[in-house]
Design brief:
alpha+beta; Arc Repressor Mutant, subunit A
């Protein structure tokens, strides 16, 4: 009987029940079964597996002052683990019924259930501190009068409903971005509003943008970054050349493929008077044009690198920089940052 009662309260961790309610749920219908159930409830209370307020019993949980915070990681099977911020604690198992209103990657508060000997820590999510994602991508659908999306990401395990007044001119079948999520109760689906219409599924532009949204890639440049890039004077002055080693008459080759739009790297090789090889490694001197703490610099640091997708590049810098003055294109003067390595000619 104790085993069935424990399983019942673990499935219903947030509610308190009278003995008669528990008996009805567990089909303990006879007088003998009911008396055994009451005895088991009192025993579990003494063992501190349950708490009691009046005639009602409830699963014993760690007090709210001892809530544990961490990041939720969901599995394909629907359950999850909270990875505690406190690295001294083990991961906390969370059954699908105890996920609350949390999505994969969210920072959450979890309350532990009473520890069972030989079993891992288990708990229930009671609060979402912050969401990993602010935007969710999916195809707009309609069933009767209800609009919703099923997010492209499998880890977003609930459909998101859309109010008919917040469609932002999207049509059923469009791939859209949903934001301003509200989700108060796990018994209901989250609600959001369409903040961007990406286009029809299957087109290159739509799918590239969808991927960028899914992985949080910055695929558009803010206006202040564009304006700053447009103000840069693409000119190499005699003063610029005077302070540098001139490699224009040497044999320097790029190592990017023929169809590349931006050429970032180049190599040179020559032999010095000692008979050793001088290997030159040359990269575009972006810092000559992108000044420290400028809008361009801040944006590039947030991006970290260019992202290469099938048939499309999401560049770290606006194209008039990445594909022009900061690209080591053939037969054009360019400023580089170079490292010259001397290697002996002997094997």
């Amino acid at each position: 009987m104790k085993k069935e009662i424990k399983a019942f309260f673990r499935k219903n961790p947030g509610r308190a029940y009278k003995a008669k309610e528990v008996a009805r749920r567990l089909n303990a219908n006879s007088d003998h079964q009911y008396e055994a159930l009451k005895s088991a409830l009192n025993k579990l209370y003494e063992e501190k597996f349950l708490t009691r307020t009046g005639k009602r019993f409830k699963l014993n949980q760690i007090p709210s002052t001892n809530k544990i915070t961490g990041i939720l990681q969901l599995t394909e099977s629907g359950y999850g683990f909270v990875i505690p911020d406190n690295k001294k604690l083990n991961d906390i198992f969370v059954a699908s019924r105890n996920l609350g209103t949390a999505f994969d990657g969210d920072k959450v508060e979890v309350v532990l259930f009473a520890k069972q000997k030989g079993r891992n820590l288990e708990g229930q999510i009671v609060n979402v501190i912050s969401r990993k994602r602010k935007e969710y991508v999916g195809i707009l659908k309609k069933e009767k009068s209800l609009y919703y999306i099923t997010p492209d990401e499998p880890a977003i395990h609930r459909d998101i409903y859309i109010d008919s007044q917040k469609l932002n001119s999207a049509k059923v079948g469009d791939k859209v971005v949903v934001g301003n999520l509200e989700w108060e109760s796990p018994s209901q689906n989250p609600i959001g509003e369409i903040i961007e219409v990406l286009g029809k599924p299957g087109s290159l532009d739509t799918e590239i943008t969808s991927i960028a949204k899914e992985f949080g890639l910055r695929y558009q440049f803010p206006g202040n970054v564009f304006r700053e890039a447009e103000e840069i004077i693409f000119e190499i002055t005699p003063e610029d050349i005077k302070s540098r080693i001139d490699f224009r008459e040497k044999n320097v080759i790029t190592i990017d493929p023929d169809d590349a739009k931006d050429y970032d790297d180049a190599l040179s090789i020559e032999m010095n008077e000692k008979g050793n090889y001088l290997i030159g490694i040359h990269i575009a001197d972006v810092s000559h044009y992108v000044k420290y703490e400028s809008y361009l610099d801040q944006e590039a640091r947030q991006r970290g690198n260019s992202v290469y997708l099938v048939g499309r590049v999401i560049p770290m810098l606006p194209e008039n920089l990445s594909n022009n003055i900061c690209s080591l294109v053939p037969n054009e003067d360019r400023l580089t940052y170079s490292v010259i390595v001397e290697m002996t000619s002997r094997g």
